[in-house]
Amino acid sequence: MFKAIVSAETLTSALDSISVLVDECKIHLEEDGLEIRAVDPANVGMVDLSLDAAAFESYEADGGLIGVDLSRLEDIAGMAESGQLIQFELDEETRKLHIQIDGLEYTLALIDPDSIRQEPDIPELDLPAEVVLEGKDVNRSVTAADMVSDHIALGVDDGDESFYVDAEGDTDDVHLELTEADLIDLQAGPAHSLFSLDYLKDMNKAIPSNTEVTLHLGEEFPVKIYFGFAEGQGQVTYMLAPRIQSD
Amino acid sequence: MSDWTETYRPTTLSEVRGNNKARDKLKEWAETWDDHRDAVIVHGSPGVGKTSAAHALANDLGWPVMELNASDSRGADVIERVAGEAAKSGTLTGGESGRRLVILDEADNFHGNADYGGSREVTRVVKSANQPMVLVANEFYDMSQSLRSACETIEFRDVSKRSIVPVLRDICRREDIEFEDEALQKIAEDTSGDLRSAVNDLQAVAEEAERLTVDDVVTGDRDTTEGIFDFLDTLIKEEDAEGALKASYDVDENPDEMLNWIEDNVPKDYQGAELADAYEFLANADRWLGRVRSTQNYSFWRYASDNMTAGVAASRREPKGGWTRYGPPSYWRKLGSSKGTRKTRDAIAERIAEREGTSVGTARREIMPFLSAMTHHCKNRELTVRMAATYDLDEKEVSFVTGSGKSTNKVQSIVEDAEELITEQTVEHSGSAFFNASDSETDPEAETDAKADSPAGDEASQAASDGQGQGQETLVSAGEDGNSSSSDEPADEPAETGAPDETDDDQSGLNDFF
User: Is the ipTM of this complex over 0.95?
Assistant: First the structure.
């Protein structure tokens, strides 16, 4: 059983943060909220999203699992004007999802969850450095790096207590440094890893500019990017594997 | 009931049957990957366990897997984004030192527009990879030379009957199926080295029988595809109409391809009247294929197939025997190698068509051959210059029409003269408007130019300046005068046969400039 009413904004931000990595995903309809975990086809980027029941206007579920085509669902959510509410009701018999936006009714055929790529196990990582910054600074770093290169180095300077972004292009370089004063919080530790900008750019699209973003970093290790949405009732954690620094 | 080939897919390398040597080589490749950092190509017949071995390997070593197979679209962009990123990145658990196995299934099969540029991109990814890559392929030599030389190679051979039987026996025991050993032997024999087919066959037979006996196996006989070469033998030498048609059902080619195969190989055995009959049927088949194309009604395929198989077989009058070396159809190769020529031809025809107000097809079929004959080897230089000027032809195109070498001085000077002629005519046309005179000045100049350059075109140029109405005569006389014996015929022919009707078309064009 699944019945829910949610605002268009909340649904759109949730879907956007998943669709940057995958086209289809499984949604766990838990009693206390939605859970989505997915890994991209290259096995390089991972997303773990939860949306609490409190983020919904009303929410009833009993632990089902459905598979959806994300672009379809995004299109439907796009039909709603801002502030409008979207109603969901799952028909267990036909395995279809009834979606209603005011007078508009849409019946979405679901995908067999078994046919969707297996959900990843969230790896336990011990990452020494933690950086908390504003979403707009993430955006600025990524945009600056994108001008010169297709990969980006994120690191923490242990001595200076600062977070830095390096991008080396064929001819031009970009270096951006954020000291403790620019950051919301910093726990310094040895950290320097290279990442694909394509992925970071996509993930950045889902990060609201006025939100607090937490980065966990290590030496040549994946980065963990954590942020909240829907007034803190939704949480997204991205993980991105590092590029191998070729010699 | 789930698919046994999935249920009993080996999870570790030690469970991979047959091909022990290849298996050990694969393991060694993976273990020493840090030293050599090369990708590996695993190739062999379908169903011998190549992909299974790759997955089992990853499982043994605890490496996460990224797989791209033929069911994904595999254009250059997808390969770069997915395989490229996977091959360049560390893993989510191990970071940079973590290994990931990138498996590219059916690396020899990139199809059509969806996979455009795919195979080239694979080569690029392989060369820049920082993670171990396994390319799985059926046909080693279908992959490009540069890709093959960038990788190590491991061949998986057909699995012997001796190795297949124990696998089947093991599955029977685990599925609680009673069996006769001979039944398993028979299945193994029938599938000739393809372990996956053997398992599939076993499942198909076992679903129907309580106890597996040899008799069950016979009823569960699988369809096999007949190779096109065997089919050609059957069609051309052995079977009657009905037999040939039935044999064609087992061939895995569509009628368009099949027609090319038959059409190319029939003349190797048929002769004289029977060959003529066979081609009659092939022509019928081709017409049906044309109808399929224009109506998109694919049920017409049956008539095409009837004609090309039963028709050809029925045309046979003498018994055939022996061995013939059949070859693949040359149609596509010819199309490919003549692509440049056809492009030039069409470009010229388009310009002629525009100028003369005909269709491109008419220009190509009915005007260009005459032009070609009249200007053969630029013998009639003056005419060639005018043609080049009229249709604005460059060196390549002049050489295409006349058959002279493109880089020869002759052709180059003709094109230069043609350009001059165009400039002159532009001046001439505008001349009267702007200067009110100069007709009389430019004309003689042009004449003397032409004379000096080409004695052969003398008469023609005179005739040209003599009078407009006599253009027809000019061409004929020029052809006769200027041609050596070799080019006599083609030059005469259009003048005699084509002049009354067809040549009128291009004459009008040339006349404009007389």
Answer: no
